[in-house]
Design brief:
Number of strands: 8
CATH class: Alpha Beta
Strand order of the largest sheet: 1-2-3-4-5-6-7-8
Order of helices and strands: EHEHEHEHEHHEEHEH
Distance between the termini: 16 Å
Strand content: 15-25%
Radius of gyration: 16 Å
Number of helices: 8
CATH topology: TIM Barrel
Number of domains: 1
CATH superfamily: Aldolase class I
CATH architecture: Alpha-Beta Barrel
Helix content: 25-40%
Structural class: alpha/beta
């Protein structure tokens, strides 16, 4: 970690949320392509929102076990990164032309290191194209963190970005940064109001990270 912790706001569904991200100076905007998620979004809507984002904000497509058709749609829609939960075949990865964030849903530090070893040893093509590891809660989209009782760090030889996700909010993000020293923090549930993302909650979260 170089000192600056970058910020990803995930699960955008409305065009005014792009303005919230522009004004608060976040680094990544996440769009969920997963039908079972309440934040699931269609391609045309995502493209419309992305057109309102500042150019410096990177666009992340969040997927669960994507097939080739979804990967091609994501590439052709102007996304910078694909975030993969679940599984993905080597065949799909061979044709994937944008960087990958691999999400691991973990319960504690032992579970994380076991999954990292399996990922590194058994998925060489996915590993090679992966630039970041998303350390997420056991249940994707639950808004609850994994066990924070021990410090975790990615092994140095992995040379991947660490993205801390799962249950982060303005109250606990400082402790998460202190414990895990992530490159990026990823938030969704805690910055939402009654109808989508809340400007005030995003600003509060961003201020907590920056201070």
């Amino acid at each position: 970690m170089d000192g600056k912790v970058e910020i990803k706001i995930c699960g955008l569904t409305r065009t005014d949320e792009a303005r919230y991200l522009n004004e608060t100076g976040v680094d990544y905007a996440g769009f969920v392509f997963y039908e079972k998620s309440k934040r699931n979004i269609k391609k045309d809507r995502a493209v419309e929102i992305m057109s309102e984002l500042d150019k410096g904000i990177k666009r992340v497509a969040v997927t669960v076990s994507p097939d080739m058709a979804l990967i091609e749609m994501i590439e052709n829609s102007g996304f910078d990164i694909i975030q993969v939960h679940g599984d993905i075949s080597d065949c799909c990865l061979e044709k994937c032309g944008i960087p990958v964030w691999r999400a691991l849903n973990v319960t504690d530090i032992d579970d994380l290191y076991q999954k990292l070893r399996f990922f590194e040893q058994n998925n060489p093509e996915i590993y090679k194209k992966t630039i970041g590891i998303v350390i997420d809660a056991p249940a994707y989209g639950s808004g609850k963190p994994f066990d924070w009782n021990e410090k975790i760090k990615l092994p140095c030889h992995l040379e991947k970005q660490m993205i801390l996700a799962g249950g982060l909010d303005a109250c606990n993000v400082k402790e998460g940064i202190r414990l895990f020293e992530p490159d990026i923090v990823d938030v969704s549930s805690s910055v939402e109001g009654k109808d989508g993302k809340s400007y005030e909650r995003i600003r509060e979260f961003v201020n907590a990270v920056k201070t």
